[in-house]
Amino acid sequence: MRAKTSACFGMLSVSFAALLVAMPAAAQQVRIDADDIGGVVTGAKGPEAGVWVIAETKDLPTKYVKIVATDDQGRYVLPDLPKGNYDIWVRGYGLVDSPKTKSAPGKTLNLKAVAAPSRAAAAEYYPAQYWYSMMKLPAATAWRRPWPIKACGCAT
């Protein structure tokens, strides 16, 4: 009886360990259908969360662009794309645009994010309003006039 119990416990332990090993691989997989492109974006330190994946085609009557953001595990899905050949690339804060990769709907495409070599290089990819929004302006109470204002509006 004791041998049977320990054999069952051993098989259960091995099964549980195999499940734990398989879980990260399953978590990285992206389900797509015939009109989607999906995959995982990774960088030098692993999956890239919150970066943009951009798909662009000129195979349609007008230029078509679709942009999505990756989740916490670097996964993305560009859903419901019209048939065509797409240029796919990655863009994000602190990154430079990755090389464009050709793909078509119905395919899985894993991408690599490219870190910017400097802040100046990263700044070339974003409009000035982004950098302006990052400024920390002093509170209104910190501003004082250098001269007194009289009721007549004249400075003395």
Assembly state? single chain
CATH topology of the largest domain: Immunoglobulin-like
Strand content bin: 25-35%
Number of structural domains: 2
Tell me, rounded to a whole number, the average pLDDT.
Answer: 80
Shape call: elongated
- What's the order of the H and E elements? HEEEEEEEEEEEHH
Number of strands: 11
Q: Give me the number of helical elements.
A: 3
CATH homology superfamily name of the largest domain: Carboxypeptidase-like, regulatory domain
Please give the largest β-sheet: 5 strands, mixed
Cα Rg:
27 Å
Regions with pLDDT < 50 over 5+ consecutive residues? Answer: 7-27
Q: Strand pairing plus helix content: what structural class?
A: alpha+beta
Helix content: 10-25%
Please report the first level of CATH classification, the CATH class of the largest domain.
Mainly Beta
Measured distance between first and last alpha carbons? 104 Å
In CATH, the architecture of the largest domain is Sandwich
Please summarize what this structure is.
A hairpin with a 2-residue loop joins strand 1 and strand 2 (46-47).
Task: Write a concise keyword list for the protein shown above.
single chain, alpha+beta, four-stranded antiparallel β-sheet, Immunoglobulin-like, 156 residues
Please provide a written account of the structure.
- With 156 residues, the protein is α+β, with helices and mostly antiparallel strands.
- It has two domains: 1-27; 31-132, Immunoglobulin-like (Sandwich).
- The protein is 24% helix and 27% strand.
- It contains three helices and eleven strands, in the order αβββββββββββαα.
- The strands form three sheets. Strands 1, 2, 5, 9 and 10 form a five-stranded mixed beta sheet that branches. It has a four-stranded antiparallel beta sheet with strand order 4-3-6-8, with no helix packed on it.
- A hairpin with a 6-residue loop joins strand 3 (52-57) and strand 4 (64-69).
- The radius of gyration is 27 Å and the shape is elongated.
- It starts with a helix and ends in a 23-residue tail after the last helix.
